[in-house]
Amino acid sequence: MNTTLDKKGFFRSKTFFIIASLTPILFFYTLFSVIPKITAFYYPFTEYDGISEPIWIGLKNFATIAKDADLWGAMKNNLFYWVIATPINFFAALIVSFILVKKPYKENNFYRILYYFPAILPSVITALMWQFAFHGRYGIFNALLNAVGVNVGEFYWLTNATAAKWAMIIPMVWGGWAGNMLIFMGAIQSVPESLYESAELDGATDAQKLFLITVPVIWETMKTMIFFSIIGLFGAFELILIMTNGGPAGATEVVGTYMYKIAFGAEGVAAFGYAAAIGLILFAILGCVSIVAFRFMDRGEAIEMAG
Amino acid sequence: MFWKKSAYLITTLLLVTMVLAFVGCGKKTDVAEDGTYDGEVYPENGLPKNKKVKIRAIYPVAGHGKEHFEYAVKTFEERFPNITVEVRYIDAGLEAYRNIVRSLLQAGDENEIYDWLYEAELKLVMDGKFEPQDELWERSFFDQPESKLKDVIKVDEREVYSADGRIYRLPNSLLITGLFYNKRLFRDYGIEQPKNWLDFVKACEKIKKQGVYPMVMDGKHAENYFSFGWGTVPFAVGGKKYIDDVYYYKPDLYISKAYVTYLERLEEFAKKGYIHPGTASFDHTQSQMEFLQGKAAMITNGTWIANEMKDVAPADFEWGFMPFPGNAPGQKRILSAPSSGTGYIWKNKPTLVKQWVKEFNLWLLNLDVQQIFARNGGIPSRSDFVEQEEMVTSISPSVRIALEALNEPDVLLIGSARSRVVSNVEMAKVHKKQGDCYIALITGKMSAKEAAKEINDQYMKGLALEER
Amino acid sequence: MASNESGMVRKLEAKDVVLRVLLGLWALVIILPLIWVFYTSLKTNQEFFMGAWQLPKSMQWNNYYRAWSQLGIGQSFFNTVILLAGAMVLNTLIVALGCYTLARFDFKGRDVIYWYIIGSYFVTGLNTMVTGYILMRKLGLLNSLFGLIINYAGGTIVFNTLILTAFMKGQPKELDEAAYIDGASYWQTFWHVGLPLARPALLTINVFNFMGYYNNFISPLLYIRDPEKYPLSVAIYSMSQAMTYRADWVTLFAGFVIMMIPTIIVYSIFQSYITQNLNIGALKG
Questions:
Q1: Which of A285, B291, B310, C149 is deepest in the core (most CB within 10 A)?
Q2: Per the confidence metrics, is the pTM higher than 0.90?
Q3: Do B121 and A61 count as a contact with CB atoms less than 8 A apart?
Q4: Structural domain of residue C167, as residue ranges?
C-alpha cells in the first residue's frame, strides 16, 4: 500500500511541506538580505572614499576606532537615550494598547487611528515642528514655562549642551511608541476572551489582567519586542540628524550621525571604509548584548515555570 | 584525418581574425593621422556631419534648475542635427546623483557610465578617469568668434588647471559667498557698508545698541556656513602666503597666525553679543527667518541660497551684499568666488563621442544659455556677460548685487582649489571638528587658542595618515 | 452580590475617568501638531517666514494645486499602486508560509534556520547601497518595476518574520490538530486555519510593509533609470530636496499632506480589520 502511494504520499508528507514552505523565504532572504551584507563585509577592511577603488588596509580601521574618543562619546549618548527612552516607549505602548483594545470606551476606535499618526508624519515635518517648539523667542516650551511663572527669557534649548541632550528625549518619546503600539494591539487582540471572563469572576483588577493573563499569552511577541528594543540601542539617528546635527558641539552626537558625517560629510573627503568598520563593531556589540539578554530571559522563564 | 580537421580549424581562425581586424580597422579609417575627418564637416570644429553620435549625460537638478541645460541641449541639437544629447535629470538632487554615480562606478560597467558628468571627485580625476579638455581653453566661443575662452573667463589659474597641469572641466560659473545685509536697517541706523574690519566692528556696535543682533548664521552646519563669510578672514590676514599654504596643505595650518586671528575675532564677536544667541541651533531656514524678520541685520550665505530668500522675503525688504570685511583698512577685500566647473568627460569612450562632448561643453558657455542660468540664480564666469546691459537687467537681484561686488576695484577673488586630495578617516573628521569647535567657541565653552589647537591636531593626524 | 456589583461599578468609574482624561491629553498632543501642519500648508511663504505659528490670513488652496502638479501624480501614482500591491502580496505569501512552518513544526535545524534569518537584523551598520546595486545588476532586475517588487518583497522578510513567528507561536494548536483529524493536508490546514488565525499579525506586518515601501525613495533612485517608472516616493523626495534651494515650504507641506493620505486610508482600513474579533468559536464549529 505504502509503496504504490509513495509518490503522491511524499507530496502530502510533512517533510515535503516543511521543505517547500521554507524554500521561498530562505531563497529570497539569502538573495536580498544576506548577499548584499556579506559582500559589504569587505568595506570595513578598506580605505574607501566612496568614489575610487577601495584600498585594502586590513585591521587598521579597527585600530583607529579603539582610539576614537569622539566615537565612544557618541556611543555614550546612544546609551543615554536608549536607557531613558526605550522603557518609556515599551511600557507606554503596552499599557495604552491594552486600554485601547480591552476597554469599552467609545473614543478608542478613533484613538487607535490617531495615536499612530506620529509614525505617519514625515520626519522633516516633525523635526521642523519640534525645532520651532524649542525656539527661544516663539517656542512653545518657553511659553509654557513663562505661563507657570518660570522666567526663562529668550532661552534657545538646542544651543545649550545639557538642555539639548535632555530635550531631544521629548520628540523621541512623542514619535517612538506608535510602532510598538501597533504590534501590541494585534497581539493583545488575539488573546481569547474566555481567559478574561474567568479572571473577571475572581475579581481581577486591570493591572492583574494585563500582567498575569495578557503578557504570558503574548509572551513570544513580548520577547520579540524586547529584541527590537535591544537592537534600537544604536537606532536614534534620523531625528537627531535633522534637529541638531549632533550639536551643539557634539552634545547630542550619536553613532548614527557620526557615521553619516564620516561617510557623507565633506565633499571629496570621505571614509566609507571606516564607517563600515564602525558598523561591524555595532554588530558585535548588539550580538553580545542580545545573547546575554536571551540567556537572561530564558532563565527567567525557567524560573517562572519551576516556581 | 588529423590534418583535415586542423585545416578546417586553422582556416576558421584565420577568417575570424581577418573579420575582426577588418572591423577594428574599419573604425580607425575614419580619422586620419592628424585627426581630421573625410566627408562633409562643420566649419567650427571640423567634425563630420554625417556620423550620428549620441551623448549620454547625467545632470543633478540643484540650485539653478535645469532650464538652461534643457535649452542648451535643444539649441545644440538644432545646430548639429546628427547629434543627440540624452540627459538623465536627477530631480532628487546632488546627494542622489552622487549615490547613483558611486554605485555605477563600483559596479564597473563602463557601458553604463555616462559620457558627460556634472561633477567628479578630485581623486577620480587624479586617477586619470577623465579626458583632458585643454584645447578648449584656446578655442573661441560659438557666439563670439573673436573672443577666446582664456581671455574672457577671468579666474585664478588654479581654478582652471588641475594639479597635474591639465584642464578637466571648464569653469563655467562662480559660487559667490559673503554677507547679505538688511539695507533698510543699515540706512535707518545711519550705517555705511563697511569696507574693512575696524569699520565693520563699529557698525556692529551701532546695530547692537539699537537692540538688534548684528549677525545670525546657520550653526547646525557651522563648518559650511561659517566659512561663507568668516572663512575669508584668515585669507585677509594671511594674504598670498596663506592662500598658498591652504593650497599645498601646509602642516600646522590651523595654528597659523592668520587662522588663530579668525577664531579670536569670532570669539570676540560672540562675547560682545554680536551673534544671535540661537545661532548654534539654527539651520539655514531658521537663520533666514531671523534675518527676514529683522531680528538680525546680517547673514552669511551663498548667492545661490540667497536666491531662494528673495521669493519669501516681505515685499518691502531691501537686499544688500558685501564681501566679508575681514581686511585691514587699505587692504583689498577678499571675496570668496571659487569657480564651479561642469562637464567631466569619461575617458574610456569612443573618440568621436568625446570630441562632441567637448563641443557641447563649449556650447554651454553661450551667452543665451548663461542668461537663463543667471536668471535662475547662477553667476556666469564669462566676464563679457556683465558688459551686456540687456543680459544683466533680467537676472535675479541676488546675482546682480553679487556681480557688482565682483567688479569692484578693491576686491580680491579667492578660489577653493587644492593641490591634491588627502582623503582618509582622520582628514574626514577635520570638517566635523571645525563645526563643533566653532559652536563651542561662540557659546563660550572653548577659547580661540584651544579651538585652533584641537582643529590643528586633527588636521595633523590627517596629514600623518597620508604618509603611508 | 448586589453590593459587590455596585462597588465594582463605582471603582471602575473613577479609574476610567482618569484614564480617559489621560488618553484625551495625549490625543491633544497629537492633534495640535496635525492642525499646525495643515494650516501651515495653507499659508503663503511670506507668512511662514514671518511667523512659525501664525494662522494664515487667507487659505492658499493653490498650494495644493502646485504641489499636485510638481509631484506629477498620475503615472507615478499608478506605478506606486502596482509596486506596493505586488510587493505586499509576494512578501506576505513568502513570509506567512515560512513562519507558519517555523512556528508550528518541530524539526531538526529549525532553530538554526530561524536564527539564520533573525541574525541579519543585528547587522544594521553596513552600507549595502553599492552591493545591493551590484546584485540587482547581476540579476538583471534593474530599471523595472518587476525587479523592484522582487527586491522589496525580499527586503522586509527579516522584520516580518520576527513578528509573525512570535505571533503564530502564541496561537493554540488545537485547531490545526482538528483539521488534520478531519483529513486536511498540511497545505489546506495552512490556507484555511493558519492564515485566517494570523490575520491580525498579517495585517500588522503589511502596515509596516506599506509604510516602508511607500516611503522608500533610495531603491527606486538607484535601480530605476527611466523617470516614467518612478513611484511617488521619488517625487516627494525630489521636492523636499528642492526646498533647500527654493524655500517653498508651504507647497512642501501641502505635498506632504497629499502624500500622507494614502497611508492614513490604508492604515485605517487595516486597523479596523486587525481589531475585529476573531471568530474562533465559529472556526471550531
A1: B291
A2: no
A3: no
A4: 71-284
